[in-house]
Amino acid sequence: MPELPEVHTFHQYFDAAALQQKIMQVEVHDDKIIRNSDGATFARKLAGRTFTGSLRRGKYLFAELDNGHAVLLHFGMTGDLKLYQEEGDKPRFERFAFVFTDGNRLGFDDARKFARVLYLEDRDAYIAEKGLGVDALEISEEDFLEAMGQRKTSIKGFLLNQSMLAGVGNLYADEICYRTRVNPASTVANIPVKKRKEIYAKMQEVLHIAVEQAPYYKEYPDNWFWHEWRYEGHEAPDGKSKVKSGKVAGRTTYWASPWQRKY
Fold first, then answer.
1. For residue 183, how many C-alpha atoms fall within 13 Å in the half-sphere facing its CB?
2. 1 — pLDDT class (breaks 50, 70, 90)
3. What secondary structure letter does DSSP report for 76?
4. What is the band of 3 on the pLDDT scale with cuts at 50, 70, 90?
5. What pTM did the predictor assign?
6. 110 has which bridge partners?
7. Domains and CATH numbers, the chain
8. Which one-letter DSSP state was computed for residue 114?
9. Phi–psi pair at 192, nearest 5 degrees
10. Which residues are paired to 135 by β-bridges?
11. How far is it, in rounded angstroms, from Cα 204 to Cα 74?
């Protein structure tokens, strides 16, 4: 599932493909993922408009229009973008396509239909309504520590809470906990300040490394972060602990105990 670094890659792709492009029409094949209107209305509102800018906030990508409105692209589990011209290059599970006046088409592909696409008249009001927190790449250490406070939730739950921190998902949360040797089930309130600062630093490190490598979530390299350790039975660096899995914060989680200490 695309998390912050993967959506950052989509952001770059969208900008290169669509900015300053006038939309001749929108071809909607299946409007299930268009969540706040039917396909015909969505297409009518976008016809003749031009994409003038974009904003990524966590896992959300907002495409800005020349009338001050925006289109939200949230990729769910299997969402994807593809720029093409020939019909034979159309993505297999294309749900709709922006057809630009220059002849290019930007298709939104989604096999499982878990994506969410919305036409928004007020982007900032939507962000406030959703309660999206500060982007994980932009939050300061001070604000990160303040958000942690004396919360009784698990550190995994905190990292996944998009109202606290926008952009970190299940896989990167496990990676951050593994690198800081913190059991994902640790209670935030029990984690010492020094370790909290380490969690912040490693979060920034992991996300920046990932963003710089422009990951495509369907084709990670073999040495990509969790591919090197996130499976049951992997031996932790202490030479004794083994990685196991279970549910933490309602999500499938991997950790090595006691190498990753529980606070």
1. 18
2. confident
3. T
4. very high
5. 0.94
6. 79
7. 4-130 (3.20.190.10), 134-257 (1.10.8.50)
8. -
9. -65, 155
10. 166
11. 23
Q: Are 134 and 128 in contact (CB under 8 A)?
A: no
Cα–Cα distance measured from residue 177 to residue 184, given in angstroms and rounded to the nearest whole number: 6
Cα–Cα distance, 243 to 181 (Å, whole number)? 12
Q: Establish whether the linkage from the previous residue to 258 is cis, with ω within 30° of 0.
A: yes
The two three-digit tokens of residue 184, written as one number: 């994902």
Q: What is the end-to-end Cα distance of the chain in Å, rounded? A: 29
Structure tokens at 188: 């935030």
Crossing angle between the packed helical segments 4-18 and 193-212, to the nearest 10 degrees: 30
Nearest to 133 by CA among 123, 118, 143, 119: 143
Say if residues 244 and 257 touch (Cβ distance below 8 Å).
yes
Answer yes or no: are the C-beta atoms of 182 and 155 closer than 8 Å. yes
Q: Side chain identity at 234, as an amino acid letter?
A: H
- Interaxial angle between packed helices 141-148 and 193-212, expressed in degrees from 0 to 180 and rounded to the nearest 10: 130
User: Which SS3 state, helix, strand or coil, does residue 190 take?
Assistant: helix
- DSSP-assigned letters across all residues of 76-90: TTTEEEEEESSGGG-
Name 55's bridge partners: 62
Determine the residue type at 112.
R
| Helix spans in the chain (H) | 4-18, 39-46, 123-130, 141-148, 155-160, 170-180, 193-212
Q: What is the pLDDT of residues 89-136, one digit of tens each?
A: 999 999 999 999 999 999 999 999 999 999 999 999 999 999 999 999
Q: Any idea which residue has 């090197």 for tokens?
A: 228
Length of the chain equals 263
| The one-letter amino acid at 26 | V
